[in-house]
Structures are given as C-alpha cells and as structure tokens.
Amino acid sequence: MLRTAHRDSPPLRRSGPLKYLAHLAVWLYVGLLLLPLYYLLISAFKSNVGILTAPFSPFAGFESGNFGRAMSDATLGPALVNQAYVTVCANLLTLALAIPAAFALARTGGRIGAAVERVFALGFLIPGFAALVPTVLLAINMGLFYTREFLILFLPATALPLSVILLTQAMRAVPRELEESAVIDGAGSWRLLWSVYFPLARPTVAVVLILNFLSFWNEYFFSLVIVGPDSAIRTAQVALPTLSLANSSQYGVLAAGIVITLIPVYVVYAAFADKMEGAVLAGAVKG
Known about the structure:
Blueprint: H1 2-8, H2 17-43, H3 48-53, H4 66-73, H5 76-107, H6 110-121, H7 132-141, H8 148-172, H9 176-184, H10 189-200, H11 202-217, H12 221-227, H13 236-239, H14 242-246, H15 251-286
C-alpha cells in the first residue's frame, strides 16, 4: 500500500539551472530599467562637477537650486498648467466619444459592426506626419491656429482608434443575461451603458485613460506646430527643450527639468495602477 501510494503521488518539481537563469534575466532587466531613472534622479540634485566626476554617486556635488532654475529659465510653471489643461480636456473628450461608440459596437453584431470596427482600426495605418498639413490648414480655417483648444480637439482623433477597439472588446465580454435583466426592469440604452456596461468595463477604461494620458502628456511635435512657442500658452514638452538653450552646459538643470515633467506621469500611473492590473488579470483569466 505504501509503495502504491508513493508510486501514484505526483513527482516533485526540481529547480534546475534554467530557473535561476530566468530569475537572473528578470533582475537584469529590472536593473536596466531602473539604472537610467536612478542616474536621472541623482543628476537633478548635482552640479556639473559631481555629474562628470562621480556620475553614480548620490552625494558628490550636491546642488539644491537646479529645480528652481529649471522652473524659472523654461517658465515650467505656466507650461505645466497648459500641459495639464490640454491633457485632461483631451482625455475627457476621448472617453466621452469612445465609450458610447464602443457600447454601440459591442451591441451591434453581424457585418455592420465588424465593418465599423475595421474603419476604426484603419486609424492605425495613418502616420502622424501625413496628417500634419491637413491639420494645420484646418486649424487656420477654423481660426484656432496657435491655440490650445484646437490641440484639445485634435488629440482625441489620434487616440480614438485604440480606445474604441479596447473598450469594444471589454464591453463584448459583458454577459447578455445582465443586459436582458436590465431591459426587463425598464432600462434604456443610456441606463444600460452607465449601469451595466460601464461598471464592468471600468478597468479597461482605466487602461485607456493611462495610455492616452501618457500619449497626450508626452506629445511634442503637434504641440509645437499647433500651439507654437509662445511662452504664455506653450505646453511643458515644448518649453522643456528651451532649457538646452539657456543652460546648454548645466546638466543638472536639464535633468531637473525632465524630472519635473515626469512627476505627473508617475502620480497618474500610481493612482490607476491597481485598476490597470485588474484589467490585465481579467483578460488573462478570460483567455
């Protein structure tokens, strides 16, 4: 009996060298990601002498005025306000357009729904530079050239293809039984959207929000062309390169300016990271 039980028990997994190599590769990858960030952070608090003589030492050549010089030389205060205004408004407009569109596509079956979804997917095939001249001409004809408002209207057009496709896939996973129960209770289309579909697709909405925030916050080319270099309305990404003109040899000031523009990105990601992880895990379970 003992021999039979021992023979039927599952074999113990042995940790071979591949397991340790996999762990080593993961930690090397983490180190490659954290090393540039660490170098950037300590450089923002150091003088040129400390950066050049002891680049990886956090205590060599401490300089406390780099952040103040970066804020004043590039007028990063108003630029950050403009960047936040454009990013938040464009993100809200994108969600206001993408959520109802995804809801309609998720409930529409057959060839019509597939054809409309393919139309949204065609947005991935249009490069940004190809839309530059028509966008500038449209802004001039609307009288919105060199304004933040046109950038707010333009950025959602670049983000709608991915946003609609991600939200459509999330809303298609909503059980039909929930929709039928809500319809029996007298719920209309808008009630179905906000009471049934939207709560279940909330993790994917968080993913879309974070992806669009990163895209809108880091957008430089169209911000420079459409909004222009005017210090009163320019965004942070347009103002940041001016530090290289005013402080071409002050590497600590340049690093401090980059850190200032990165802080909102990490704050937003930390606020929505749990919902993003929930969406990823939900997709893995469904797969």
